[in-house]
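Recap quiz, item 2
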Amino acid sequence: MAQIRVERLQKSFGDFAAVKGSTFAVRDGEFFCLLGPSGCGKTTTLRMIAGLELPTSGAILLDGEDVTLKRASERDIAMVFQLFALYPHMNVRRNISYPLLNIGTPKALIKSKVEEAARILRIEHLLDKSVSGLSGGDRQRVALGRAIVREPKAFMMDEPLGALDAEFRHVMCGELRALHNRLKATTVYVTHDQLEAMAMADTIAIMNHGIIEQLAPPQEIYDTPASMFVADFIGSPPMNFLPFRGSVRSGATTIFAAGTRIAIPAAREDCAEGELILGVRPEHVLFSDASKLKGEVYGTEYLGTTQIVTVKSEKATLKARLPADIAIRIGEIVGLDFKPQKLSVFEAASGRAIRTALHEVSRHG
Amino acid sequence: MAEAHLDNVSKRFGSAAAVTEFSLTVGDGQFVVLLGPTGAGKTTTLRLVAGLETPDTGRVWIGGRDVSREPPSTRDVAFVFQQYSLYPHLSVYDNLAFPLRSPARRLPEAEVDRTVQEVARLLRIEAKLQARATQLSGGQMQRVAIGRALVRRPAIYLMDEPLSSLDAKLRAELRIELKRIQLDLGATILYVTHDQTEAMTLATHIGVLNHGLLVQTGTPREIYERPADTYVSTRLGSPGINLLPRAMFPDAPAPTGAETIGARTEHLRIRKASNGAATGKVTWIERLGDQNHLHVSVADRDLVTLTDPDVGVGVGDEVSIEFVRPLFFAADGRRLEGGIEIAASREARTFMDPALQRRLIETVARTVIAHTDELTALDQPIGDGDHGINMKRGFEAVLADLAKLAGQPLPDALKSIGTQLVMKVGGASGPLYGTLFLTLGKELPASPSLADVERAFAKAIEAVKARGKSDVGCKTMLDVLAPVQAELSRGGADLLPRIAAIAASAAEATIPLKAVRGRASFLGDRSVGHMDPSARSSALMITAIVSEFGA
């Protein structure tokens, strides 16, 4: 297995810059997710690493070796597109063997490799079955088996679970991650689904308009989003934004927004008077009769363990995640409070997060 | 709007049964969501109501009329399909107006305009009214498709996964809008989905389908908290319910016949194990941001639960697992209700499930409230005449908290009730009843045995006595509670009827109780044969509890 380095990678299609200078490293054995909306450049990045697309500029290093101009077949990377693409007329064993047969591997070696792959994937009992009768999950395992037997340096996966319905997708996420824990294969995984990325990745690169907006482990991305785009893209329901006008001085521990003073993590930089945004995750919204910030309950959504309560205040519509056993009626007027140590502050114009003590907690904790 | 009703409907396609003996009522103004996996018969059911399919047997009623043999056009239904189907050459306005301009309706154009504007406002597409359908985003197109159904006021709206083609964010937004619109219009909706979040957040009632059978109907909370069987229990909840063999946890109290423990996040208490008390090991933490899924392996099983992001448990840690009133299922998959087995050994632990606890609290509260006038009448000749209204205030506060109380472990629920009564009942009775419930809460374990109840009851009586040394109401209360305590210590199979008899004798206002006689000296002749109101309220509570257990 291998380490992948991507340096100042750029790709333009005519006037359109799909990838605008990405630099990142994928550690050996890491599960690395490229996450973003459609058109953000994530698939283009993946295809360049795999050698299916030539970069306009920049370099790709595989285990220290510059492979930027090498052909896909020379890179020793397995591309897993749609996990369900199998040869319907072949049985499971033959489907998995196929890449090895193609390169003339001795029969005995093929047999042992296929059986090893089947053991890892826990599909030994299916080897002599026809693929047409398999369940979705088993088909996916077979497709993975076909990638595994080649023993590539890294796996590239492009929205492999995209075609599955939500329930099954989550099961498959668990399986893929468990498989990764056994194989420890360097994996670059492309998805637009934040839950998939959060559930599986060691590191997420979240992309927007060809730029990596943040590169960090899932929890750090969630807790300390580097920009409003990231804050909005990750989390369901997404982060609440409360616009206000003001300035922030380094060391400040409160802001004045929505007619009330709100405690925030201590600021670590100055920010001139301007339009700012207070960012609050739904689970950090508290109901408090004492609060001056009032709103009307617009809707409640029961989810079993928790409920999502939508509150309309003068300034913004906020969503709060609360325990399901708290009785809340539509139309009720509630006071809103926030968990101070968890809040983010953004510059409205750039969307950039202002540095606060929040960032230190995450780095050191 | 009107009610729709499927009466014992079956439909086969060739040899495949799509729906079997299906009966369902969609009440006026209800939002009923049919939930099930692909192939469960959801869409067929919807099409049977719409008239796009004809039942092999059974009947379909809409608005009190048998429409089983009627074509779709005369059934007065509006259908929203999964894929928006708009007229691409028409503007949004004309797409919305189309159903109103049909020759059969001949609405005046002013009326058409008013309705279109109204619906556009509800769906927030006013700004797009003049746009061509093809210029819209997917989300806007689906809004228009829903809007085209909403411009009419049919007996019932039928919706087949109308949000499934939208991205997650838009889906969440339209979900809450759709719910608002339904409430505003008082619309009757039958809605089909395989998405549990949609079902839970939209529905007034959910119908869970499996292989063409309607397995359970109920409010989202009922289905979530009291699933009929293991299948239903797996349909709601994220992460999904953990189904574990009862045999793996021999020490956990469970009702007779329990084969499977069903544990959701709220039923599990997972702690870092200390000195060899480990039952499992953390294998993986899925960090989903707000919700972290903790994977714990127990024997060869994987158990998934939510954990607070800040909780100090890491991969590889040994943990202890404690169940907090989980669900229990029998060998055939049916859920077992909690219950008390009087004849069983005095040490046998009662399994108190949230449903049973809810019923007990609710019955006690409603019984007391229902007797407000009587309690007032009893209090008037001897006291301030406010016992009834005071008790009513206290138990109304309890009812308001019912969902929370049902979900708490029994001791916590009893303490909460005690606190409510102290604060809300006031007077002399508030602290007395408060003391009673607070002491029971302090003394009872979460799954009490009969012996536990008896001990706790004895302590509670002591506490009430200590509290109310000089209070006459206290003595009369004890005249009901003390004999009950005596019966509890006797036990036996006919315990419930005996306790019921004590409560009933206290309920006979013409029978003078000992304490009432004691009070006679203080009250003079007026109170002879008169019952004390707090004796009556105690008796009412006992009667309510006994009747619940009897059932």
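Chain A has a mean pLDDT of 89.
The longest strand of chain A covers residues 16-26.
End of item.
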